[in-house]
Amino acid sequence: MADMKVYFDHNATTPLHPEVKKEMIAAMEMFGNPSSMHAYGREARANVEASRRKVAEFIGAHDEEIIFVGSGSEANNTVLSLFVCATNQCVGGCGMRSTIITTRIEHPCVLETAECLAHRGAHVKYLDVDRYGKIDLDQLQGMLGDDVGLVSVMMANNEIGTLQDIEAITKMVHASGAYMHTDAVQAVGKVPVDVRRLGVDFLTISGHKIYGPKGVGALFVKKGVSYCPLIRGGHQERGRRAGTENTLGILGLGRAVEMRALEMTEEHNRMVQLKTALKEGIEARIDDISINGHPTDSLAGTLNVSFEGVEGEAVLLYLDLEGIAVSTGSACASGSLDPSHVLLATGVDAERAHGSIRFSMGRESTMQEVDYLLDVLPGTINKIRNMSTAYIKGGVHAASR
Ligand SMILES: *Cc1c(COP(=O)(O)O)cnc(C)c1O
Questions:
Q1: Fewest Cβ atoms closer than 10 Å to its Cβ: which of 137, 264, 353, 379?
Q2: CA of 130 to the centre of ligand 1 (A)
Q3: Which residue in 378, 61, 388 sits closest to 194, CA to CA?
């Protein structure tokens, strides 16, 4: 069995969809610059615009509302940076609406940008979350005012999967006169995302989280919202993002969203079954665990579990030896021993946060893989607990039971 390979880390990144790979390989010879007027350029331009149409259609936007960027991180950096009043192009209006509201559970590319902007004249306020990772609309209402330029709340959390009610949040935000951004990197392609229904002004997409290539993303900017590029120096993307287009990446992203449109509904139902089996299997086989994230308003393929008395890193490495890939906290936080800021924000203590594992399944995940994980995991947790002096069950050290 140990030769079975199980990839349960789809929230960190996903493999290329076979259709995306096929189309990218077929287009590998396409090298024209979309800005060139000759046949090479026109071919590349046609492909970029076809992808723009696919991305726009997938989220209910107009073509000209889609800006291709280099990553989800770049899109998030761009939006937040619009609201710092270093220039008179500041979208918030200089000196007026210089407050940004975000949450304590955003991806680091939002949180670190917000921190940086706080040193450059912006005021940043952070929304708390409850034990399930949901923000409190009353707290948001209390923070909104005519000093607030932007509210940025992620649609689905990458670590615990919790979904926020972006439609309701946007209504409140707009009533106060502020703009609304959502980092939808983990939501797009997993749950229905329609920018008109949500009402948002800005929305972030990343290619490699939806079986597309790495190093490409898309930013939705609602028509009429004034905008100022983060990367300057060219007329590409209607002057909104300079730099010669990543033509192959953009082509792959377009094909990826096309495949999401075909597959996501059926896949969702399968993910619900896999997650239920995994969750119930862990609960039945392993003592002293707790499930993190919202019980219902959550991504179907994401399960975050705290195992008392273990280090998440040890679990990850032991599972890796068995061919199973999972993650602790978020991929971006690994390498450091800081407990996950998301779990801490939900009230999980540092010790329990350290013993947390994220299982994130995706389109090629199977029930056989869940069964294999459930075969391996109890022994792995037991082994680590028996080595640990910290884990004492019911006052008796696990090793001496
Ligand atoms: C992965 C991720 C990002 C960053 O996207 P990149 O394309 O890797 O820069 C942003 N937000 C969330 C929620 C993510 O999961």
A1: 379
A2: 23
A3: 61
Q: Hey, what are 323's tokens?
A: 């061919």
Q: Ligand 1, residue 73: give the atom nearest the CA.
A: 9
Cβ–ligand 1 distance for 73 under 6 Å, the answer yes
In a 13 Å sphere around the CA of 58, the CA atoms on its Cβ side amount to 30
**Ligand 1: residue whose CA is nearest its atom 6:** 72
Counting from 1 in the atom list of ligand 1, the atom nearest the Cα of 154 is: 13
Residues 155 and 275 in one domain: no
- C-alpha 292 – ligand 1 centre gap (Å): 20
Q: What is the pLDDT of residue 400?
A: 45
Ligand 1 atom closest to 156 (CA): 13
CATH code where residue 387 lies = 3.90.1150.10
> Same domain for 276 and 229?
no
Instruction: Determine whether the shortest distance from the Cβ of 109 to ligand 1 is under 6 A.
Output: yes
Instruction: Report which of 173, 203, 160 is spatially closest to residue 185, judged by C-alpha positions.
Output: 203
Using one digit for the tens of pLDDT, what is the confidence trace for 59-73? 999 999 999 999 999
Q: Is any ligand 1 atom within 6 A of the Cβ of residue 72?
A: yes
Measured CA to CA, the distance from residue 54 to residue 125 in angstroms comes to 36
Q: Which residues of the chain have pLDDT under 50?
A: 86-88, 331-333, 398-401
Q: Which residues are catalytic?
A: 332
CATH code of 243's domain: 3.40.640.10
Model confidence pLDDT, tens digit, residues 259-312: 999 999 999 999 999 999 999 999 999 999 999 999 999 999 999 999 999 999
What is the CA(287)–ligand 1 centre distance, in A? Answer: 33
Quick one: tokens of 106?
């955003």
**Domain membership of residue 364 as a residue range:** 6-14+263-400
**1 part of a folded domain:** no
The rounded distance, in Å, linking the Cα atoms of 328 and 316 is: 7
Please tell me the predicted confidence (pLDDT) of residue 226: 86
Among 11, 155, 185, 216, say which to mutate for ligand 1: greatest number of ligand atoms within 8 Å of CB. Answer: 185
Residue 1 confidence (pLDDT): 52
pLDDT of 201? 98
| pLDDT number for residue 57 | 98
Rounded to two decimals, what is the model's pTM? 0.94
Alpha carbon distance, N-terminus to C-terminus of the chain = 29
